[in-house]
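Lab notebook, design round three. We kept the backbone fixed and only want residue identities now. Task for the bench partner: fill in a sequence for the structure below.
Input C-alpha cells:
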C-alpha cells in the first residue's frame, strides 16, 4: 500500500490539478443551484429521462422502448409518450436504456414524487451522475495531457476544460441532452485504445497482462455508444489506432479489441434487461449517424459549428487557430501525440456539421476535450523553444482572462 501513495502519484501536480477540478465542480454546483431556484417547472426531456429510468429500475418497463418488463412481446401503453417516440415506433433513436438508467440511478434514494415543487431536491440527485462524469472527464484529460506533454501540457488542457462554459453547462444543466457521459466514454475509448497499443511491445503475455485496460476499454465503449448511438464510430476508430501503433502485434491488438467489444456488448445488452427481442428492435430503430450531405454546401452551417465551438470555449477562438497554424508550419509538432487528438476532434466536428440537429451538438461537445489536448500539446512544444517567455506571457494572459470571464459570467447568472 505504501508503494501506491508515492510522490509520483500524489505530488504537487496532482494537488494543483485537484484544486482546478474542485473549482470546476464548484462552478457546476453554482450553476445547477441557480437553475433550480430560477425554474419552477420541470423540463419534459428531463422528466421523461428520469421517469423511464426509474420505471426500469423498478422492473416496470424498458426505458427508451415501448416494452413493459412483465410482458415479453406486448408494448406498453403510455399516454405521456412524445410524438417523437411515436414516430419511431416507440423507440429512442439516439440513446439506449443506459442513458435513462444513469440519469435515474441516484433517484432510487428519493422517497417522494417527482413534483415541480420538489425539483430543487430530486433535480440535484438526477444531475449528480453528470457532475461526476464532468469531474472524471477533466481528470482523464489532465492525466492524458500530462503523460503526453508533461506538467505544463496537463495544466493548460485542464485550465481550458475547467473554465469551459459548454462543459460546465453540459455537466450541470438537466434540460440538456447530457452528452458529458458520452464525451467521457468517447475520450476514454480513444485514449485507452492508444494506451493498450503502446503496451503491446512489452515482453509479457499482453492479452492477459492488459486485463485492466481491456476492462476499462470495455466499460468506455458502452458508456459512449449507450448514451449516444452515433458514437459507434469510436469502435472502428479505436481499432484503427491500435493497429497503427502496433503493426508488429496486430493479432494481439485485434484480440484485445474483440475482448473489449464483447464486454461492451454484454453491458449494452444488460441495459435492455437481457431481452434479445427488445435489444434487436432497439438497434433496428436506432439512428447511428443520420448524415445530411447537403449541409456541406451551405456556408451558414460552417459558421454555426464554429459559433458553437466558440460558445463552448471562447479561448479556442484564439488558441485553436494559433495551434493549427503552428502544427501546419512547424514539423516538430506533427507527431502522433498531437495528431491523434486533432484527427478525432476533426472527425467529430465534421460529423457535427453533417448532423446539424441532434446528435450534431453532441459531436461538437465531444470534440472539445480532444481540441483541448491538441492545443495543450502544441503549446507545450512552443514552451520548449527560445520564445518560451513570450509563449508563457500569451498563455497566462489568455488563460487568466478566460477564467476571469467565466467566473464573471457565472456571477451574472445569480443576478439574472
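Proposed sequence:
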Amino acid at each position: 500500500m505504501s508503494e501506491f501513495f508515492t510522490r509520483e502519484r500524489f505530488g504537487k501536480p496532482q494537488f494543483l490539478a485537484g484544486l482546478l477540478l474542485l473549482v470546476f465542480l464548484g462552478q457546476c454546483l453554482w450553476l445547477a443551484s441557480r437553475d433550480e431556484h430560477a425554474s419552477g417547472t420541470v423540463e419534459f426531456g428531463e422528466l421523461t429521462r428520469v421517469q423511464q429510468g426509474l420505471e426500469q429500475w423498478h422492473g416496470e418497463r424498458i426505458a427508451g422502448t415501448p416494452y413493459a418488463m412483465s410482458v415479453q412481446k406486448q408494448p406498453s401503453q403510455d399516454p405521456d409518450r412524445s410524438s417523437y417516440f411515436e414516430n419511431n415506433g416507440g423507440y429512442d433513436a439516439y440513446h439506449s436504456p443506459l442513458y435513462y438508467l444513469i440519469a435515474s440511478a441516484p433517484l432510487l434514494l428519493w422517497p417522494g414524487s417527482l413534483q415541480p415543487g420538489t425539483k430543487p431536491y430530486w433535480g440535484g440527485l438526477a444531475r449528480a451522475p453528470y457532475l461526476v462524469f464532468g469531474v472524471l472527464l477533466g481528470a482523464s484529460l489532465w492525466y492524458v495531457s500530462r503523460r503526453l506533454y508533461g506538467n505544463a501540457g496537463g495544466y493548460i488542457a485542464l485550465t481550458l476544460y475547467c473554465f469551459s462554459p459548454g462543459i460546465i453547462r453540459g455537466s450541470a444543466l438537466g434540460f440538456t441532452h447530457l452528452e458529458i457521459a458520452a464525451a467521457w466514454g468517447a475520450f476514454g475509448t480513444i485514449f485507452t485504445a492508444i494506451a493498450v497499443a503502446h503496451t503491446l511491445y512489452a515482453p509479457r503475455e499482453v492479452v492477459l497482462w492488459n486485463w485492466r485496460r481491456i476492462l476499462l476499454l470495455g466499460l468506455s465503449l458502452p458508456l459512449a455508444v449507450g448514451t449516444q448511438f452515433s458514437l459507434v464510430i469510436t469502435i472502428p476508430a479505436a481499432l484503427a489506432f491500435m493497429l497503427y501503433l502496433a503493426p508488429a502485434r496486430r493479432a494481439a491488438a485485434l484480440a484485445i479489441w474483440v475482448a473489449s467489444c464483447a464486454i461492451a456488448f454484454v453491458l449494452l445488452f444488460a441495459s435492455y434487461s437481457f431481452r434479445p427481442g427488445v435489444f434487436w428492435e432497439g438497434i433496428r430503430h436506432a439512428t447511428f449517424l443520420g448524415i445530411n450531405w447537403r449541409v456541406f454546401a451551405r456556408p451558414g452551417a460552417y459558421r454555426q459549428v464554429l459559433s458553437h465551438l466558440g460558445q463552448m470555449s471562447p479561448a479556442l477562438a484564439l488558441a485553436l487557430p494559433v495551434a493549427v497554424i503552428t502544427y501546419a508550419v512547424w514539423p516538430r509538432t506533427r507527431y502522433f501525440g498531437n495528431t491523434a487528438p486533432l484527427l478525432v476532434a476533426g472527425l467529430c466536428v465534421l460529423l457535427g456539421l453533417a448532423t446539424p440537429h441532434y446528435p450534431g451538438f453532441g459531436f461538437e461537445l465531444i470534440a472539445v476535450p480532444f481540441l483541448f489536448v491538441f492545443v495543450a500539446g502544441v503549446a507545450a512544444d512552443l514552451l520548449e523553444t527560445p520564445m518560451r517567455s513570450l509563449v508563457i506571457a500569451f498563455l497566462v494572459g489568455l488563460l487568466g482572462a478566460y477564467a476571469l470571464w467565466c467566473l464573471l459570467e457565472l456571477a451574472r447568472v445569480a443576478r439574472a
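Keep this in mind before ordering anything: DSSP finds 17 helices and no strands in the chain.
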